[in-house]
TrEMBL record:
SUPFAM superfamilies: CoA-transferase family III (CaiB/BaiF). Pfam families: CoA_transf_3. Transmembrane segments: none annotated. This is Carnitine dehydratase. It comes from the Bacteria. GO terms for molecular function: catalytic activity. InterPro entries: CoA-transferase_III, CoA-Trfase_fam_III, CoA-Trfase_III_dom3_sf, CoA-Trfase_III_dom_1_sf.
Amino acid sequence: MSAPLTGVTVLEFEGLGPAPFAAMCLADLGARVRRITRPGSAAQSPIDRDREDVALDLKSPAGVEAARALIAGADILIEGFRPGKMEQLGLGPDAAHAINPRLVYGRMTGWGQTGPMAHLAGHDLNYLGLTGLLSMMGEPGRPPAPPLNLVADYGGGGMYLALGVVSALLAARASGQGAVVDATMIHGASHLATLFHGMANGGRWQPARQANLLDGGAPFYRTYETADGRYLAVGSIEPQFWRNALAVFGLPEMLDAQMERAEWPAQARRLAARIAEKTLDAWVAAFDGVDACVTPVLTLSEAKDHPQMAQFFRSTDQGRMPLPAPLFTPPQGF
């Protein structure tokens, strides 16, 4: 099956983080991505793969004119500059749509195009802090734990930009009219957390860390240290899975009090003590084939060799890397 974005041309303005990640996703799906870079710039990240680099000096009239010519032949434009930068270059949405009315103009910002902080710099940790999500992560009595830069940068930012520009492209091909897609990391991360906003609004989420169902407060949804200093992930939320897990752990009497929050700390201590009696490999063997949502916590290198994970990696000149996602296959019989 041909890649779904074959024939789509993306013009990317060189940047860092989530905007390049969105462009990578589009390239993975078959789009031709032409990237305007600064003279002398070179790709330094795996996220920068599969680009056709065009070095332009956007501070010169000739460079801007060359960029305008590239805009004329693009389906999608992606930029991740601070608000107003593209307008200063004479390449903002109004100017771009005057050249190419069908263009989907994708913008990536951390704080948004407007507002009192729009002109300020920031990183994933700052965006998560402002959304309230960072306050929910980590252990009680300790500083909130940074969850890598996946939630705001790539989840709330890059993936929303990729989804937005592809959706707008579908509409543009039907109507002949392009659009501006404004993806903002604090917005996307907040949207990712729709479930938790709803739980908090309904009084079903406590502000204290590890006092809730999905933040490590529940004994059946957290990680535990094994005898060899490794970790086991127990995600047995549903009663049937918790029953199966407790059978293997040898603690069936804990089942009846699963949703008794007052019992959670004591249950977690009992389970921690039991899990600490055996190595990670011993627990993995004990749960082999058991439908209990109990799995090992692997390292990155271990994950690539796991029999379930290996199918989603490929060998590249940068080592084994994840395959483009998601996978596309034609219906059976075609």
